[in-house]
Design brief:
Rossmann fold, eight-stranded parallel sheet, alpha/beta
Amino acid sequence: MKKVTVFTGHFGSGKTEVAVNYAIANKVSAICDLDIVNPYFRTNDAKKLLNEKGIKVIAPNFASTNVDIPSLPPDVYSVFASCESAILDVGGDEDGATVLGRYRQLFKDSETEVFMVVNVFRPETSDVEGIALMKDAIENASRLKISGLINNSNLLELTTREHIERGEELVKKACGELSLPFIFTSAMREYAKEGEFPLNKYIKMAQW
């Protein structure tokens, strides 16, 4: 059975950086950018590096250009047809998550996990109520269930260990109230502690 890991999260959560790092760390077959909402943080920015590591990159039509048209390539279907393992990078609001509904029937033949990346320093996910509302919106739009939460709390270059740990505390609290697994805390490599998922900066104009 093919393994598909979906990364979703609101604008500013850092989900694309997490998704690209996760793809490299886990040596997946392909990574597919399904974020048709946010044109600024593209998986395609790391295409050369990903290809060098044997990871196929499937990006929206016109990705990494000045043309912002929400158009997805037919290669998306190859994720389910021929890739042993793949990551999907999906926009984390209702509009972004809706795109998953288009491929919903294809997920039934795959082992699928849907991880919601949370930055508690974004207004929409700054408390448990906001995280819960975002989770519900994504699930309703995508018709897929969130498998767990990832803490990626940051304040760009102002991030400190205190911010990361404060975010972890809140995200773990949300996991408890929502009966969801806490997947991990991710942080840029210079901040990450043992047991956390260290990130390298691969995405241009990223949030760090």
